[in-house]
Each structure stands twice: as C-alpha cells, then as structure tokens.
C-alpha cells in the first residue's frame, strides 16, 4: 500500500525560513488574522486528513473504475461522499475565500501547501472542491452583490459545488468559435442552449446543487472571443429565500473514460434552454473566466508537486528496502544477501531528480503564492503593480513547467521500482496516469508557453522579465560567495536575458518564431526560476550547520550540476528558430509513404 | 478508432536505398534465399495482417481488462486465439528461424520491419510469439540435438510457445541471488522448485504446450551468478514419440494487473518439484539466457518504434483534421471557421519530434539488424568479429535509447490531441501505457546504460566505440559538403570520442563514476547514432529531387537543429561526475522531514 507523510518540516522551512511568512503577515494589516502558529496548526490538520482519510480512498477509486454514470446521475467512488462532508465541515473549501462569504481568508502562500497534500494523496478528490473555489473566485470578482449572496456562502460551505463550462466538441483552445447560445428572457434571465464537454464535476453526488459557470454567445454578439458572455446556470434553480427550486434544463449526457483521475467525473453537459443569469457585462465573459483560469493554472502546478512528492516518498522507501547488487565501492551491507539499491549512483540520480524537483517546485509555488497575496492584501500600490507583473509572468511557469518536470519526476520514481513500478498495486503507475492530465487541461502546456512568450514577454517588450531578473540579481547578492549557486544564478540571469532579447528581436520580423521556440523558452525561464529558488533556499540555510540545512545546499548543488545543463539545449533550440519546422508542406504530415 | 497503415515506402527506402539490402543479400552465399521482391512481399503481407487482423483487437483487449486468470488458467482477449492461429499458419513465428527446424531463415534486417508492424498495432499480441522466438534462439544455441528436435519444430510452428523464467520476488536485476532449486533425479532430469514472477506468457490458451526456460541452482552450485543453470520445464511432459504426456508440476499462481499490455499474461509461476531438463552445461545458464536476452533487447527497441509510428500516424491525422485558431502569418484556410492546427509551429514541433524519432529509430534497427545478419550469415571471419563488436556496443542503445525516445515521442503525440489525447477511445493513452514497460523489462534502461558504459566501453578501453566512430567518419566522407549534417556528424563524433576518453579515465580512480553518468552517456551515444542514421539517409537521398527524398534531408536538418542540442546537456552532466550524488548519507533519502 502506498505511503504518504506530509513533508511538514520542509514546508515550514520554505514558508518561514525562506520566505519569512510570519514577518510578511505581521507587516501587513490585512493579514492580521494569520500567524505562524495558526499556519502550523492548519498544515498539521490537513496532513492528518490527507494521510488518514483520502489517501486510503485513492487506489480503490481507480481500481473500481472511478466515477460511475447511470442515466444522467454520477456516483462518486466509495468513501468520497463522507470524506467530502468531513472536508467541507472542516472549512477547507473556503480556506482561502473571503470571510464575508464564510471563508477563512487564508493567504495563498499557505493554502498552496495545504492543497499540495490533497494533490499528493487523492487528485481525483481534489478536483471536486477545486472547481468550486475557482468558480467562487470568478463570481467574487464579477458577480452582482445579490448573486454573491445567493451562491457564495453555499459554495464555500460545500453544500453546493461549481464548474467551469468552456470547451465544446469543436472548440477547445480556440474559444472564439463556441456555439452555445444565450437567448434573453423577458425577466432579464437567459435561455442557455448548447453542449459542453470535459466538464470536471459537471454532475456528482457530493453536493445538493451544482453551479455551472457557462460561456455562451448572446444574439448579435461580435464574432470571436470578443463576443462571449458568462452565465450562472444552477442545476437546481434557487428560490428567493435561498431554498432549492425546480430542476434546470441542464444534465450530464455521459462521462469520459480517461487515462487517469478516474474518480473525478468529467462530463458532457447538455444545456437545453436552461435558465441562466449573466455575470458581469455582456461580451466580457472571457475576462471573467480568466480570473478563475489563473487560479486553476497555479493549482495544476501544485498538482505536479503533489504527485512528485508522493512518488518520491514511495520510491525512496522502496529503494531503501530493496536489496539488489553491491556498491561499486565494495559491499555496503556485507551481512545481507545484497545492498540496498540506494548504493547505486544511477538510483540516486533518479531519486535526487525527483527530490530536487519537489523542493524547487514547492518553493516556487509558495513564492508565486506570496506574490498573489501581495496583489490581494497589500495596501502599497507600487508593490501590487509589481506583484501583478510577476504573477502574469510566472503563472505559465507555475502551470506548465511544474507539470512538465513533475511528469518526468514521477517517471523517474516509477523506474526506481523496476518491474514493480509497472504493477498497479504499488500505486506508481496510477500516480503517473493521474498526473498526465495536468499538462493538458486548463490550457495545454504548449498554450501556456505561447502565453509566456507572447502576452507576457514580447507584448511588454520583456518588461516583466526585466523586473524579475532585477529581483533575482538583487536577491542573490547577499549569498555567500563560496556557494557555487551564487555565480551560477547570475550567469543564468544573463543567459536568459540574452535569449529574451533575441526572441523579442526575432519576433519583429518572423511571425512563426514565437510559436516555434515557445516551449523551449518556457523551460529556460523555468530553469532560471528553479535555480533562483535553490539560491533562496541556500540563503536561508547557509548559516546553519545541521544536516537538514546542509542537505538543502547540497541538493542545490545537485540541481546545478545535473538538471540545469538542460538550459544549454533549450538555448540552442531557440537559436535555431522556426524555418526547420515551417519548410514542410501541409500534406507532408499525413502523406502515405 | 485509431488508424494504422504500415509505412512501406519508408521501410523499403531504409532497406534498399540506405542499407542496400539487395546487394548485401546477393553478395552473401548464405542469404541466397532472399531477394528484394521476396522481402517486399513479406512486408506487404505483414502490413495486411497488422492492419486488418490485430489492430482491431488492440483496443478491446485493453478495454475488457486484458488477459483473465481463473483457477490456474489464463484466457487471452477476444480474437487473440484466432489471430494467433492465422499468424502461426502463415509461418510468422519462425520467420527468422533456421530452416532445419521449420523456420524461414529470413534476415534480421527484414524481420525487424515486420516486427515493427505488430508492435505498432498490438503490442500485447506480439509478446506471445516473441518469447517463443527468444526461447527458440537459446535452445538453438545451447540445447542438445535431441532437445532441439523435440521442441523447436513445435515452437516455430506455433503449436507450442516459450517463456523465460528469470525473475523471483527478491531477485530481479541481481540474478545471482535466485533461490529456485534444481535437484538431480536418477534419470538425468531435475526436480525444479521455486517461484518465478513477471513471466510473460507463462500461461495462456493459444498453444497446446508451453516450454519454460528456467534459471535455477543445482545443489552445491557456486554462489552468485556463476552458479546458475538453465532448464527446460515443459507445461506438459513430452513423450518419446513427440506426443504430449502428463501435466508437469508447474502452474500459474496469478497474473499481474499492470499499467498496460493488459492483453499479455504476466504470470507468477510456481514450480513444485517440476521435471526439468538441463540445457547446455551446469552453471552456464546465465550465458545461455543472454543469447535470448540480447534478441529480446533489440525487440524492445522495435516496440518503441512501433508505438512511436502508431502515435505519429494518429496525431498527424488529428492535427490535419482539427481546426483551431489561425496561423501566425495570416489565415491559411479563410473559408473555414479556423485553420488546421498544422499551421502552428508548436504543433509541428511535436509531430516532427515523433517523425524524426521514427525514421532514425527505424534506420537504426535495420542497421543493427544488418550487423546481426553479418554475425550469423557472413563467411568473412574479420567482418563477423567487427559486427559482433558493433552488436555488443549497440544492443543497449537499441533497447534503451529507442524506448526512451519513443516514450517521449508518444507523449508528444498525445499532446497534439489536447484533452482528447487523455480520453481512452482515441487510443493514445493506451499506446503510452503499453509502451512504458519497454523501458523497464528485459533489463531496465538504467541497467542497459551500465552495460554500455561498463562491459561495452570501459572494459574494452573504448575499443568498440573506436571502431564505430571510424565507420561513421568513413561513411560520411562521401556526403555532399553542402549538407549541414556532414560537418555536424563529424563534430559529434569528436565530442563523443572525447567524452568516452574522459569516462575511461575517470573510471580508473572513481568506482561510482560510471553508474553516475551511465544514462547520460547512453543518450550521448544514442544521439550520435541517430545523427549518423540521418547522415546515411541524407546520403541515400542527396542525388534525388523528388519531395519524398528532399523531405528526408529536411527531417535530418530538423533533427540536428532541434533534437541534437540535448547532447550539450548530456556532456555537461557527464563532466559533473558522481560526487553530487554520493555525498548524501543513506538515511537522507527517507528521513521524515
């Protein structure tokens, strides 16, 4: 049976030693409700819930075939209903939500750590509250006061859940071509008609009502993405007194059979002149939805960390227990029939790849979380503006780079098990299947890379990147010169700055250039970000002699020696541009040889 | 429904234009039974079988849960029995086997292409004949004439099948610690007792008998791998007249539930004083088994090509059909609601990664096949010796590099589908799950890397590599100087030569060094090999103006620009050595933070 123990000491190290959360909270009047002791208590409680409640539901949910669809209804896997009630009753759905609507208003740099534990132990379970929180954010940002009063308290209490209905069979990345229609009724509501696919938690048995946020086009709306509006479409209409009214004309037509996250119901949703209520202004639906999308995108990165941490813990334990072969330097445990496979450098290579990924990714998520907290809680307008730039720049990294590296990490961890990693009972193969979707949904990682290189870099003439590089350079100045990571980080800053300038220049004359090099650029910025995180970690550890801290510095050295070299490959690919891709004719790709 | 069309034109190009098979066959008296027309006919027949018989069985075998175990018996998925009979009746099991035992004695450079088609369309099906062929090779090499007469004709006719029983619960990579015992009987046979796991085709309903090749230890055998013998243990004992006798004391205890290749029965086999017959000499079992293992290892590489080709064909078709967004350079199909996603450079990047992998991998498999053919059919002792060195050096590349790159290729292909790639019905996720085992079984890819860097490089003081580099340099000398791949290939030769020398030097004083850099070295040699294949392909195409040939050269340019840069990262990792891994204490890996 797979194991999991929340890495609380590592989490507190990142939160308190690296990012000085307590100081940050004390210096911010809007964060007076949180302190170090409260944060620790929250993490400890979630650690128990993850380990003792939802971990045990994870393998059976997959083995049993996951969520089951029957005549319009969805039954979640055994135990999910009870666990979700416990989760909701514990106030976890509204952990980061406004106190006005029943939330706890906890800072993001803390909630990312709590979320990681759920992602580690039961990603299918996590998706049920996740979409509710995302939908809540969009409503909080754009809905009328009355709409907020009607929906948000019930959503944050876990009585109702939320969805985001964007994708249609012919329309995924390109939302400008959606066909779902919204016809106005006399009373100000709309009739929503169309089919949405890939709707996470579109139907399930955990909550008494489901609040769908639906993108649709009003009559005479402009073509393309400028003509999309956002609507609330509740599964059950809500009476004026807040009680549930009649069933709305929205229903699940089927659920998808997927590679993983089988416990999560991924639904085809049919809207048949369902009653809907516009959120915000007409034709501004996409912007409203992006409030939610950005939240989800950071969450996908945390899904990556969760999977990678879970994979690491299990692989490290297996490697310790598995006796096979002898150390190259002579028997390590001559009294045993063979040595633990931990003696083999190649096994350490895999484990250290995973561990380095976990520690850098976690630091990065807390770092981005802190930037989000500045945008939300700070009263310093200049700081808010800078943090907004940082969040804009780094959200694609958080989503795509953290899931790309996590997939590789889980594959490395599976390989530590040899043949046993391929057998279902060890849990590693499910971990990989469940994680793979994180690279695909909420905007594929390729789309994230286009967002980074286009809107976030070329469009602002690399301004956001310039601010980020300035911060990194200033930050590492206080590092001990004896730490190799100091010079390395500064060198990487220069290299990424040069690459960025090269891209901005090339894009001026070659329209295909950004798309051709986007993924490589995203990885270059990801590598810069992770080496920066190890620089921050080393900074927090440099004056402490205990093994716990010295190991942090050594892991940074491992990262620089064994992972960072990928930057040279990324840079060479960026230099080689677009022509080697674009020179092929369209029919080349499918011509039968 | 997933599609597949055997890439016959590409295959014939590699066989005839690049490696001049016809000339090779004509100049070799032992290959007089094969010519170009016969080879084409064989490939065309297999293409039909793959497309019209086993492709349709592939998805249902997975969806239905695969092979089913019931009270010691295994039922293969629907249609497998009829398809296997058709396969056996067609003479396919013995395609490469000696005519003396009913085979067709076809050269390996041809059979790798036929095998690729089966791996593309139904990898679970392929595993049933594959193990028979491998077991047949071990018997052909080491068994007595009487043993050969008894078993081989029935195995090559497909009436009986074969297995290889190596792994035990506590003993995988480290076969020196196996516990299965062989006690001598008075009649010269042995009683075999023990438990073997992960036995592919250990039990099934396709054949009337199953011939297990089992590694076991005789009484007083030396400790470790020098004390292992090989035994034939038939499921049903064979009477002197060749008819089936009584059931032997060997039975499947269960089958594994796996990530993929669910149609293949992976069995726990219990030997309870089963009657066995020693093959070859006592204590030489491991060497006998390695005859088979090397054969299987090349097959795993072909499994990679098969999956990658299948993934490419489906992704390219999807990309052509899927309309989403507009080209960066302006609408490509203004009459349609959106352009085919083929207009996007990032989509082309993924497709070209896969296609470049297919064409280089396929060329490499044929190249290694030709080297194997020289070792088997040539009468020139010097040529045989050189080919033996080449096969020794490149078998780990064929097994590990071709499966590492294939997994990445199938992941790229899945990503082309966006969310649809994660849905089971499109077949892409099954392709990945089925392929993943190829990196793990028959010696994990990490073990292959250790074999390459240890036995195949350091042990011979890089002699095999020196011969390989000399061949590459000589071969590219005739390339047109205008082709960028010429200078690039020569530069890479120098780089890999330098890395190899560096490794040989470091290994003299650092016992952990080879294990620490083995996987990176394997990838470096893999990249060298693939650029060499593109050089050979460009050589065959350089004088021809048709698009088919010019596209081959352009794909080589893509490879050099976008894939080969990984070599810089591999080299940097090799330079950074072992200390960053070995400096951590053992308990670091599992210490609860």
Structure characterization notes:
Two copies of one chain form a homodimer. The first copy, chain A, is an alpha+beta fold and 593 residues long. Chain A has a domain at 459-579. In chain A, 55% of the residues lie in helices and 11% in strands. The first copy, chain A, has helices at residues 8-18, 21-26, 36-63, 80-89, 108-121, 123-142, 145-156, 285-321, 345-377, 381-416, 428-436, 445-458, 463-476, 484-509, 513-541, 547-562, 566-575, 579-582, and strands spanning 68-70, 73-75, 160-165, 181-184, 190-200, 209-216, 229-234, 236-238, 244-247, 250-255, 266-279. Chain A is globular. The two termini of chain A are 48 Å apart. Chains A and B meet through helix 1, helix 8, helix 9, helix 10 and helix 11 of A and helix 1, helix 8, helix 9, helix 10 and helix 11 of B. Chains A, B: It catalyses: 3-(methylsulfanyl)propanoyl-CoA + oxidized [electron-transfer flavoprotein] + H(+) = 3-(methylsulfanyl)acryloyl-CoA + reduced [electron-transfer flavoprotein]. Chains A, B: Residues 164-272 form the Acyl-CoA oxidase/dehydrogenase middle domain. Chains A, B: This is 3-methylmercaptopropionyl-CoA dehydrogenase. Chains A, B: Belongs to the acyl-CoA dehydrogenase family.
């Amino acid at each position: 049976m797979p194991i999991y123990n929340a890495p609380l000491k590592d989490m507190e190290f990142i939160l308190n030693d690296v990012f000085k959360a307590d100081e940050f909270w004390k210096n911010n009047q809007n964060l007076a409700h949180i302190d170090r002791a409260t944060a620790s208590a929250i993490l400890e409680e979630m650690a128990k819930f993850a380990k003792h409640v939802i971990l045990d539901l994870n393998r059976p949910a997959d083995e049993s075939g996951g969520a089951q669809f029957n005549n319009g209804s969805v039954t979640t896997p055994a135990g999910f209903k009870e666990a979700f009630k416990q989760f909701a009753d514990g106030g976890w759905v509204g952990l980061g939500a406004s106190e006005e609507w029943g939330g706890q208003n906890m800072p993001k740099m803390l909630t990312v750590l709590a979320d990681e534990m759920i992602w580690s132990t039961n990603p299918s379970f996590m998706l049920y509250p996740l979409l509710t929180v995302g939908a809540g954010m969009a409503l909080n940002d754009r809905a009328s006061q009355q709409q907020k009063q009607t929906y948000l308290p019930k959503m944050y209490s876990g009585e109702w859940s939320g969805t985001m209905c964007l994708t249609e069979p012919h329309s995924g990345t390109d939302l400008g071509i959606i066909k779902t229609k919204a016809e106005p009724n006399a009373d100000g509501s709309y009739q929503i008609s169309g089919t949405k696919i890939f709707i996470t938690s579109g139907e399930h048995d955990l909550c008494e009502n489901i609040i769908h946020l639906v993108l649709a086009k009003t009559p005479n709306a402009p073509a393309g993405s400028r003509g999309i509006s956002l609507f609330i479409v509740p599964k059950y209409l809500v009476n004026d007194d807040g009680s549930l009214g009649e069933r709305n004309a929205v229903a699940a037509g089927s659920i998808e059979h997927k590679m993983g996250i089988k416990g999560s119901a991924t639904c085809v949703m049919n809207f048949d002149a369902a009653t809907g209520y516009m959120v915000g202004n007409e034709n501004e639906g996409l912007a409203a939805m992006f409030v939610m999308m950005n939240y989800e995108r950071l969450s996908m990165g945390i899904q990556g960390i969760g999977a990678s941490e879970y994979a690491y813990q299990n692989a490290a334990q297996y490697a310790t227990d598995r006796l096979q072969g002898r150390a190259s330097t002579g028997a390590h445990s001559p009294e045993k029939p063979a040595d633990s496979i931990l003696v083999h450098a190649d096994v350490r290579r895999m484990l250290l790849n995973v561990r380095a990924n976990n520690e850098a990714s976690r630091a990065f998520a807390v770092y981005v979380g802190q930037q989000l907290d500045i945008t939300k809680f700070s009263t310093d307008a200049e700081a808010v503006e800078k943090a907004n730039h940082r969040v804009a720049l780094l959200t694609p990294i958080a989503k795509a780079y953290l899931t790309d590296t996590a997939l590789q990490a889980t594959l490395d961890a599976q390989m530590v098990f040899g043949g046993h990693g391929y057998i279902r009972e060890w849990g590693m193969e499910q971990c990989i299947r469940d994680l793979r979707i994180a690279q695909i949904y909420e905007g594929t990682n390729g789309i994230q890379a286009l967002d980074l290189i286009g809107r976030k870099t070329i469009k602002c003439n690399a301004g956001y990147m310039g601010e980020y590089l300035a911060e990194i350079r200033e930050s590492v100045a206080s590092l001990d010169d004896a730490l190799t990571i100091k010079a390395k980080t500064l060198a990487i800053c220069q290299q990424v700055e040069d690459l960025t300038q090269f891209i901005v220049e090339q894009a001026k004359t070659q329209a295909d250039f950004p798309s051709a090099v986007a993924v490589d650029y995203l990885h270059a910025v990801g590598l810069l970000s992770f080496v920066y995180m190890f620089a921050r970690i080393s900074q927090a550890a440099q004056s402490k002699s205990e093994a716990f801290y010295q190991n942090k510095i050594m892991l940074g050295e491992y990262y620089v020696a064994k992972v960072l070299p990928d930057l040279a490959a990324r840079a060479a690919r960026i230099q080689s541009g677009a022509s080697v891709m674009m020179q092929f004719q369209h029919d080349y790709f499918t011509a039968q040889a």
